[in-house]
Amino acid sequence: MIPELSHASYVWTSYSVFGVIVAWQFIQPLIRRKRLVDSMLEAEAERRAARRNQQ
Amino acid sequence: MIWKTLKIWFHKLGSAPSFYRFARVVSPWLWFGFAVTAAYGLYLALYVVPPDYQQGDSARILYIHVPAAWQAMFIYLVMTILAIIALIWRIRLTEILAMSCAPIGAALTLVCLVTGSLWGKPMWGTWWEWDARLTSMLVLLFIYIGIMGLYAAFDDRRKGARIASVLIIAGAVNIPIIHFSVEWWNTLHQGATIKLTGESSMDPSMLPPLIWMVISTKLFFGAALLDRARNELLDQDRSKKWVARQVLETSS
Asked: Which of B56, B80, B123, B203 could potentially form a cystine with B172 if both were Cys, beta carbons 3.0 to 4.6 Å apart?
């Protein structure tokens, strides 16, 4: 299944670097969006709690 | 009729909620397209194309290295056009898109440099050589990092984007230097083997995986750009009503 290559360590390292960087470009925005949405939800919950306390 | 519809759609895209919705719908399809084209391109690159008669299997690195290098330069061109539009017309979305290009361009420049180095060690006998092509590509990475740093240095995002746009336009001078470096100077790096005009010196059997990987990096750029721009929009507009409607309501 895995092809036997000459200079295999160089070839596989290159493909791995590409894979890791692409994966990071996919995952990083997801993590940031989750953090953003969580912080917005938290702020909204605090606002609602403050409103309830005032009433 | 179609032209008019397209024009209205394009103008609508300039509004933050419309762009957010557009990016949310289109981005997964671009990621899917990237996954399919990259899988096919990598299959051709690793299983179908024969080894090079001189370089052996190390030539397979070029299927990563070349698309990454082309895309890193293409992203810079796109970013420069967006920066010019942002500076002249002050369209916030183009500022956001230009700033979102930088980390993706930096990532692909890094891929290009690392894979080039990994190819250079067995073929040239060295990891690095201060030749014009390699050095100008390293300068491109520094420019990308500089743009990201400058943008992040300002609390006022719009001011940061405008100042970073000036750096983007100034840094564009490096793109023709990268492209013509192999002609203007005596370099260890080989000259262009694939030419849009004129005969390419690359064997035709090596072209299909290269073309598929070039398509995949374009789709990757589109998907990553939409994701990053969407987040930036969310961050900048966090106190606006449309964000509360679209994000908070859907996630609760």
From this structure: B80
Biggest CA–CA distance in chain A, Å, is 75
ipTM of predicted complex: 0.92
Paired residues of B52 in beta bridges: B56
d(CA A7, CA B120): 12
Alpha-carbon dihedral sign for residues B153, B158, B163, B165: positive
Query: In A, which residues are within 8 Å of B115 by CB distance?
Result: 14, 17-18
Instruction: Please tell me the predicted confidence (pLDDT) of residue B249.
Output: 66
Alpha-carbon span A1 to A17, nearest angstrom: 21
- The residues, ordered by sequence, that sit 6+ positions from A20 with a Cβ below 8 Å of its Cβ are none
Q: Mean pLDDT across the stretch A21-33? A: 97
Residues 68-87 of B with CB under 8 A from A: 68
* C-alpha to C-alpha distances, B42 to A10, A44, B46, nearest whole angstrom: 16, 46, 6
Burial class (CB in 10 A: 0-12, 13-18, 19+), B44: buried
pLDDT at residue B251 tops 80: no
Half-sphere exposure of B198 (CA within 13 A, CB side): 7
CA distance A37 to A44: 10
